[in-house]
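Hi there, hope your week has been kind to you so far. For a while now I've been wondering how a particular protein folds. I'm sending you its amino acid sequence along with the backbone structure tokens. Could you read through the record and tell me how the tokens relate to the sequence? Take your time with it, there's no hurry, and the full record follows here.
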Amino acid sequence: MSQFNNILLKKEDKVATVTINRPDKMNAMNSPTRKELVSAFTDAANDKEIRAVILTGAGDRAFSAGQDLSESQTFSVDQASPWIKEFGQVYDAIIDMPKPIIARLNGVTVGAGLQIALLCDMRIASENAKVAMTEINVGIPCITGSFLLYHIAGYFQAAELTLTGSVVDAKRAAELGVINRVVPTGELDSTISDLTDNLKEKPPGAMALQKEWLRWFKRDLVEVSKNAEEIHTKAFDSGEPAEMMKKFLEKRGLTKTQKKL
């Protein structure tokens, strides 16, 4: 198992499992985590022995709570653009993966956490999983998430989820097409194991070509990312994100030394 500080990378029987390993923060992502995710996906992409990749979160509470608000709460206007570019590097690493990626949704999957799950090829969820695009609740517009939801669930569902920030249970998410399959919690790993057994036996050349073709609907993400930089810069310039994130953290009784979502 490769050594990282914020994630785990395990390779076994032709399958690479990438785990966001911040369970005390509900696997929220900060800058070091994003950089390590890029490294792990690049490693798996270049490893000729790997035929399939699983992305998940440590523990049983969350796949990922998205952006670590204890990081972004103090962002200046100048930090918005580099922040979006850093997430863009994670998204590119997922999109460019020549092998199938399964998102193992083992709990709360919100904001940027849901965005990286939507970029994966398949999403298998336990029955206790919940998904949401909660950016609006902390003063941030949801740009990449809106784009992905539009292509997956349609305009009206994308609008409702991103404008209300409402949490949706796994069953409803599956009805919307956001999740491929919902299984009992105790069957999550066996279901994914069966799926990877199928995938890793496929010819790697054909798989890579199929993945290349499936990227077509994500081709406009470059333009989306440019818009995201501009819009998020405007958002942070308004002061709303800092104010709303502070309220969010205070509501949960969290201090700067207890940076937990």
Summary: The two ends are 28 Å apart (CA to CA). Residues 254-261 have pLDDT under 50 and may be disordered. The first strand starts at residue 7 and ends at 12.
